From TrEMBL:
Keywords: Magnesium, Metal-binding, Molybdenum, Molybdenum cofactor biosynthesis, Transferase
EC number: 2.10.1.1
Reaction(s) the record says it catalyses: adenylyl-molybdopterin + molybdate = Mo-molybdopterin + AMP + H(+)
Function as written in the Swiss-Prot or TrEMBL entry: Catalyzes the insertion of molybdate into adenylated molybdopterin with the concomitant release of AMP.
Native source species: Sulfitobacter guttiformis
Main enzyme class: transferase
Domain of life: Bacteria
A Gene Ontology molecular function term of the record: molybdopterin molybdotransferase activity
Name listed for the protein in its UniProt record: Molybdopterin molybdenumtransferase
Pfam families to which the protein is assigned, alphabetical: MoCF_biosynth (PF00994), MoeA_C (PF03454), MoeA_N (PF03453)
Length: 390
């Protein structure tokens, strides 16, 4: 059995970054920017008032000074003249500051009668002017790769970039296997259960930027599995769930081999997730996940998510971990790296008491995986351990 680290290296070796596609900005949230983009304009494009008030000359500002209001500048409508000594222009937030003005007095500090204003006594140093290009200037870049968050979308819009180059979404075909499975909403027979992993995994992968597609459930026959693989053809990644172990009905490895899969590895020294396999099948990456629900979803976090990030040009890195103190004492770990369902409470981590890999309630109640190294000795409460946030 190989280690988690070795398995991840083998998986990264299967990965190539996705092609680039150009999409409308409105559709780009959560996508990964694939090429640097350049601001098409400066923001603000002119010196702009940051307040509602009066534009005038700083040199003329003093308590009780009087000015004649000669015009108005509003957002979208500049004052076309040049401001002269003793003059003020009524100005509103976002409006271009008139030529000749270099100061905006807020209206609260002014008394107005007809066309005349008188300044008050408490005017500060702040000019209330946003300089041209104060946010960004023409030619400034937003660097790729970058997972686009709402603020990035707003920035690209302000830069007048309506079409964005992003990495194409990896298409991931997910195949559930097993005679015992029916889809949610169907009527299970007495020996059947509902396929759940596929739904959880698809949700996990969609959230990372994949286009996850659920294939029909493959039954425990060679013909049915072959048919499922056929339907999955053309996907960037094919993930099977279940049928990965050593039982008589575990057909994924033999059927994939029959289809010409070149296997990178089978079995990883981890808990849960041991019977993991991966390789290349035609043009697709093939990953065989174990059937136990928690095993499949933990493998999703530990292996599939980093692969997807790499496919989306975000680099080859393991799932991010951080160190936190243990809330309780823990016995020594066994020979497999253990990804324990756990809860972070007030900055300390508590492993769930039940760690069986079939327990979805425990996984759903967890907010972290507590990672224990293979053969790690017993630890006392307060020891620092590593967690992966869920
Ligand atoms: N003799 C041995 N038996 C087992 C070993 C072993 O080393 N020697 N490994 C165990 C481990 S660890 C795991 S994990 C499981 C993995 O088995 P498979 O990948 O072959 O999965 P199945 O047997 O098909 O299913 C296991 C379990 O999960 C349920 N399942 C499967 N698919 C789904 C799904 N889409 N949604 C919900 N539940 C699913 C299935 O009904 C089984 O209960 O093997 C151990 N055995
Ligand atoms: O490794 Mo299995 O993945 O214990 O549940």
């Amino acid at each position: 059995m190989i280690t988690v680290e070795q398995a991840l290296a083998e998986l990264f070796a299967l990965v190539t970054p996705m092609q680039i596609e150009e999409i409308p900005l409105r559709a780009a949230s959560g996508r990964v920017l694939a090429r640097d983009v350049v601001a098409q304009r400066s923001q603000p494009p002119f010196a702009a008032s940051s307040m509602d008030g009066y534009a005038l000359r700083r040199a003329e500002v003093e308590p009780d000074a009087m000015f004649k209001v000669v015009g108005e500048a509003a957002a979208g409508h500049r004052y076309n003249g040049t401001l002269r000594a003793g003059q003020a222009v009524r100005i509103f937030t976002g409006a271009p500051v008139p030529d000749g003005a270099d100061f905006v007095v807020i209206q609260e500090d002014v008394t107005r009668r007809g066309d005349l204003i008188t300044l008050g006594h408490r005017i500060g140093e702040k000019d209330n002017i946003r300089p041209a290009g104060g946010d960004f200037t023409t030619g400034q870049t937003v660097s790729a790769p970058l997972r686009l968050r709402p603020a990035d979308i707003a920035l690209l819009a302000a830069m007048n970039v309506p079409i964005v180059p992003v990495f194409r979404k990896p298409v991931v075909a997910i195949i559930a296997t097993g005679d015992e499975l029916v889809q949610p909403g169907e009527m299970p027979g007495p020996d059947q259960i509902i396929a759940s992993n596929t739904y959880g995994l698809a949700a996990q992968l969609d959230a990372l930027g994949a286009d996850a597609r659920l294939m029909p459930i493959a039954r425990d026959t060679t013909a049915s599995l072959l048919r499922a693989f056929e339907l999955a053809q053309g996907a960037d990644m094919i993930i099977t769930i279940g049928g990965a172990s050593v039982g008589d009905h575990d057909l994924v490895a033999p059927v994939a081999a029959q289809l010409g899969m070149s296997q990178s590895f089978y079995k990883v020294a981890m808990r849960p997730g041991k019977p993991l396999m991966a390789g290349k099948l035609g043009g697709s990456i093939m990953v065989g996940l174990p059937g136990n629900p928690v095993s499949a979803l933990v493998c999703g976090v530990v292996f599939v998510a980093p692969m997807l990030r790499a496919m989306l040009g975000l680099g080859q890195a393991a799932a991010p971990r951080r160190s936190v103190p243990l809330a309780v004492d823990m016995p020594a770990n066994g020979p497999r790296e253990h990804y324990m369902r756990a809860s972070l409470v007030q900055g300390r981590v508590i492993p769930a008491t039940q760690q069986d890999s079939s327990l979805l309630t425990v996984l759903a109640g967890a907010n972290a995986l507590l990672v224990r190294a293979a053969d790690e000795p017993a630890l006392n409460a307060g020891s620092m351990v590593e967690v992966i946030d869920l």
